[in-house]
Amino acid sequence: MGVAGKSYPGVSVAIEPDRVAAFARAVGADPADGSLGATAPQLFGDAEAAIDFDRLLHAEQEFEWTRHPRPGERVSSQGTVVADTSRRGIRLVTFQTDTTDDKGDPVCRSRALFVIRS
Known about the structure:
Blueprint: E1 11-14, H1 17-26, E2 56-65, E3 74-87, E4 90-101, E5 106-117
Antiparallel strand pairs: 1-3, 2-5, 3-4, 4-5
């Protein structure tokens, strides 16, 4: 089993100013300082990928921000499995998400490593 190279359909979302402000307040940030963004990969809902949450460890995650998204703008994210390997009963899945603005300019790239034991 392996889904390395598989990309998932892009997801587009508007950065809602009210939600950004509420999140900023919830984490003790000043809503006027900018926005906070997040991505939600479709990998976990993919039956072909067969990600077993009972055996999953979210091992690493990193973000490369070109800039932070601005409240009111629309961004699109697309996820790709860049690696899917197994060693000694441990499956290692690296998932990358690229987020762009309406012009197609990069906003953020994230990578996550998921460790799944057999």
